[in-house]
Write a structure and sequence with these properties.
heterodimer; A: alpha/beta; six-stranded mixed beta sheet; B: alpha+beta; eight-stranded mixed beta sheet; elongated
């Protein structure tokens, strides 16, 4: 069966479940795994974090539940009749605006429609790309010794991610399924949080020197970025390291690449690269390299504490690093290495760290 | 000459008018806006008192005019009028009045109010007060221009003549004074008349403001408040000096007669009992009692439990009129009222009434408005110093569903509180009659009254929340469920599902659900009856058929209707239980109306017509 047909059948299945609940006199409801920190657990099968057994019931017994179900069926109808039957698509934002005409089923904010799309992903075990729903922004940029082919509206295009691209690199499309890797000369994939560091490594020729595919993840990585990294890891069998700032928020960026995000744990198996490793900036680097720092704010400390209770960070490595950071009461940015000279990061820190990690 | 003798020359009596001339704040004339309010209030109180005494429904006209730098205050009533000889003293002598020496509830007590207005008027504008009064249709009206001779506290008549006046009877007073007219807050002429209208729903008050704007506070009832009668002092809480004074000046010859006649609530038996407790001869002359004996009598008063003073010396507003008054001036969702029994402090009977209005258009986030009244007179100033406010503050309102951010103090919420204290003698904190003193007995009564209405509010709110739960469910059912069903049928291209069974489940209703199976020209009909509520439901279920049915299970009673048959079952179904009825008819005759349920409310039944 074609993917579109499968998707359509699954969405109709949801509608027909509700329909038969009406017929049987059962109060119509959908049950979903509850999407909280307390309900994610480690799946040893795929080495990723997924939702546990706790479920929330969305039933028409309350006005809120009833409205959510009403919105769900309106949304299903849109996806079936407009998207899948006509082979068209909308962005998340557009869906929010489409609901303007849905009377009491109208979404109050985009977060609400986004959440409902995620719910449908969970219920149908599909991904929003299958519903022809796109995010507003495309994925981030890639620079490195990699040749790939992208299926575009103007046909298939071969692109080399050093030779055929500008200084900014190759931009990852929202549907990573349209990419085929052709050849590469890489030894590793490095995911980098900030644009400043990404540009520094390109300027210093780090990609050529170490045969690294550099991925600029632009803060919290989009789904397509995470899928692209996973694809590199699985299909080309390349090790993945993550290079971020040294603060609690950056550790969460790493966690979403390596362990999965709480919000999208239902997609962990498609998005997560369990073998990804954290490169830095580690709290211990602050001491070892005597980096210039900022003070931790109250919010930073709260976030660190929350991470100590987060099952994803429940490893001896993270416990040691987080506790060290709380003792130091300091955090450091990637750019802090510039204080030691512009070449310090590529000539000293990264080679040392990568050797320590056994990658080079 | 000795210094003391020198000084003695300067000693002289001070007239009460002179005293008040220098201490006008005591009478409530301390600021320009306030002077105007006090003056209007005093004149209106007099009018209301006079009308009540005469059994007339008050119709009071108030006008404020600007006259250069001064204001003219005109108050006119349809009361009984004042006889010509009395007019000068009523208006232009302080401490002259009819009410000071009687124990009876009235607005005015000391005879100061309006004369203080006259005094203030002549001090600030230098003009005399003009009075017109007429006592009967056939008689001429008397016109006077008056001032007060402050040195002597006696009226001075500037002008006096008879005249024609179109009113059948009544009194009109016109004063000119310094002042300042404010509106838009409670401490204003408008605000104080509005409050007066709430507790005097039998009065019509018309206000013409300086800009010509006319406000009419219409009456909410045609019946006059119960007339208050004068009574004797009650023995509870009387002080020794007062008792000695009464003993000395009585004309009664025997102690037991003195006791019975001088006090309320003392009869022949209790008079005897008091004498024997005090070790006094009931036949002795009261004037001859020693100081020690008077003391023993007083302690006997305290030992003996006396019955409460008679209520008829007081004129409470009553629960109905408090309600009418609140309804008239506010838009409210709920009103609770209570009238406390008569109680006594220091020999003075008093009674507390409380009203509480909730919801409607009242502000949700601001402090509760407190309307204070004493003998039907609104108290506008010095809220913080008043026993009513103190009693409100000490109630723990959180227990009664109003918020009280600091745990004590005036509560916050969409509510208005009305407290009326009626007494033969209201213990004000000062002569300006702004605040009631913290008399323990009165505080207790206000507290009890507040808690009574608060309990009623709590009951109302908890009932409301049950109702709102039901309303919420109705919203789902009326608006959302049909839409879900419609969308599902659109998506699946199937008939709209019957939402009846789900509705019954959500609403906790009785569900009647009929199914038909046709076979060999016969139709087997099955009726499922499910009780989704928490209560046992007992009722009759009717099916009206054109022909007789067979295989009726369980057996039903049948009544022939001429053109058909009424089958009915008497059913009683426990909570969460269900039962099935069935019968078989010829398919040709299977066209059926809705099943009919008899003996339950329509809103708790789904899937059947209710009769």
């Amino acid at each position: 069966m074609e993917k579109t047909e499968i998707t359509q059948k699954k969405l109709e299945g949801l509608a027909s479940d509700l329909y038969s609940q009406f017929e049987k006199g059962i109060v119509p409801h959908i049950s979903l795994p509850s999407r909280t920190k307390a309900n994610i657990e480690y799946s040893s099968k795929d080495d990723v974090w997924i939702y546990g057994d706790q479920e929330t019931l969305r039933s028409v017994k309350t006005v809120r539940g009833a409205k959510t179900l009403l919105k769900t069926v309106y949304l299903s109808e849109l996806l079936i009749k407009e998207h899948l039957r006509n082979n068209r698509g909308s962005t998340l934002r557009e869906i929010y605006y489409i609901s303007e005409n849905w009377d009491i089923a109208k979404f109050h904010e985009q977060a609400e429609s986004d959440r409902l799309i995620e719910d449908l992903e969970i219920v149908t075990a599909l991904q929003r790309e299958d519903f022809h729903v796109r995010p507003e922004e495309d994925g981030a940029a890639v620079f490195g010794p990699l040749k790939l082919q992208e299926k575009t509206r103007r046909g298939e295009k071969d692109i080399h991610c050093q030779e055929d691209v500008g200084e900014a690199g190759y931009q990852i499309p929202f549907n990573v399924d349209n990419i085929k890797f052709q050849s590469h000369d890489a030894k590793m994939v490095m995911a980098i949080e900030t644009g400043g560091m990404y540009a520094r490594l390109i300027e210093n020729g780090f990609d050529e020197e170490q045969n690294a595919i550099l991925v600029h993840i632009k803060g919290q990585p989009a789904r397509s970025t995470r899928r692209f990294i996973k694809k590199l890891n699985v299909e080309l069998n390349l090790p993945v390291v993550v290079f971020t700032d040294g603060d609690p928020w950056s550790y969460r960026i790493f966690a979403s690449i390596a362990y999965g995000a709480i919000k999208s744990a239902h997609l962990s198996e498609h998005l997560v690269t369990p073998s990804a490793r954290f490169l830095g900036v580690q709290p211990s680097d602050i001491v070892d390299y005597n980096l210039s720092t900022d003070k931790l704010t109250d919010k930073d400390v709260q976030a660190l504490r929350a991470e100590l209770t987060d099952p994803r960070f429940n490893t001896p490595y993270w416990e040691k690093q987080i506790k060290l950071q709380m003792d130091l009461k300091k955090k450091a940015e990637q750019q802090a290495f510039a204080g030691k000279g512009l070449d310090f990061v590529t000539k000293k820190y990264l080679p040392e760290r990568l050797t320590e990690m056994g990658i080079i | 000459m000795e210094i003391a003798e020198e000084l003695a020359k300067q000693q002289k009596a001070i007239s009460v008018a002179e005293f008040f001339e220098k201490n006008r704040q005591i009478l409530g004339f301390d600021s320009a806006p306030r002077a105007l309010i006090t003056c209007v209030k005093e004149a209106v109180d007099n009018s209301l008192d006079a009308c009540e005494d005469a059994g007339i429904l008050p119709d009071i006209f108030v006008q404020i005019k600007r006259n250069g730098d001064y204001y003219q205050v005109i108050v006119e009533d349809n009361g009984p009028g004042i006889v010509p000889e009395e007019i000068p003293r009523v208006f232009a002598k302080l401490l002259y009045g009819s009410r000071f020496h009687t124990l009876r509830q009235s607005r005015g007590q000391q005879g100061i109010g309006i004369s203080a207005g006259v005094l203030y008027s002549q001090l600030t504008s230098g003009k005399p007060t003009k009075v017109i009064s007429k006592i009967a249709p056939g008689r001429p009206a008397r016109y006077c221009e008056l001032t007060i001779n402050t040195a002597k506290n006696e009226p001075e008549i500037i002008k006096e003549e008879d005249m024609d006046w179109e009113r059948p009877r009544g009194t009109r007073v016109e004063l000119e004074m310094e002042g300042s007219y404010v509106r838009s807050r409670r401490q204003s002429v408008f605000g104080s008349l509005k409050s007066a209208a709430i507790v005097n729903p039998h009065a019509r008050i018309t206000l013409v403001e300086p800009e010509g704007n006319v406000e009419v506070f219409e009456r909410a009832t045609e019946s006059l408040p119960k007339k208050a009668y004068a009574i004797q002092p009650h023995p509870a809480g009387i002080e020794l000096g007062e008792l000695i004074k009464l003993l000395r000046y009585t004309d009664k010859k025997k102690l037991r007669v003195f006791l019975k006649e001088t006090f309320s609530s003392i009869g022949t038996i209790s008079a005897q009992e008091l004498c024997s407790r005090a070790g006094l001869d009931p036949e002795a002359s009261p004037t001859g009692l020693e100081h020690e004996e008077a003391k023993r009598l007083l302690s006997a008063f305290k030992q003996l439990k006396m019955k409460s003073p008679p209520v008829d010396c007081l004129s409470p507003i009553g629960e109905d009129l408090i309600k009418a008054g609140l309804e008239k001036e506010f838009r409210l969702d709920f009103i609770a009222t209570t009238v406390r029994p008569v109680s006594v402090y220091s020999g003075n009977p008093f009674l507390v009434e409380v009203g509480l209005g909730f919801g409607g258009e009242l502000e949700k986030e601001s402090r509760v408005e407190i309307l204070r009244f004493a003998n039907r007179v609104p108290l506008v100033y010095q809220q913080g110093a008043c026993a009513v406010t103190h009693a409100v503050e000490s109630v723990s309102w959180k227990n009664y569903s109003l918020s009280q951010p600091t745990g004590s103090g005036i509560p916050v919420g969409p509510a208005v509180l009305l407290v009326h204290i009626a007494s033969t003698n209201i213990p004000f904190t000062s002569e300006s009659k702004d605040a009631v003193a913290d008399v323990p007995e009165i505080l207790v009564e206000i507290d009890l009254g507040l808690k009574e209405v608060a309990r009623k509010l709590r009951r109302y709110l908890s009932r409301q929340s049950v109702l709102s739960e039901r309303r919420e469910k109705e919203e789902i059912i009326r608006k959302i469920l049909p839409k879900i069903a419609k969308k599902l049928s659109d998506i699946l291209d199937r008939e709209e599902p019957d939402i009846g069974p789900v509705v019954a489940k959500i609403m906790g209703n009785l569900l009647v659900f009929r199914r038909k199976v046709a076979q060999n020209g016969l139709t087997k009909v099955q009726i499922e009856v499910e009780n989704h509520s928490d209560l046992v439901r007992s009722f009759k279920l009717h099916e009206v058929l054109r022909q007789e049915a067979v295989a009726v299970s369980p057996a039903a009673k049948v009544i022939s209707l001429g053109d058909g048959y009424d089958y009915h079952w008497k059913l009683s179904i426990g909570p969460g239980e269900s039962t099935t009825l069935s019968y078989t008819v010829q398919t040709d005759d299977a066209a059926l109306g809705e099943p009919v349920v008899e003996g339950l409310d329509a809103e708790i039944v789904t899937g059947a017509r209710v009769i």
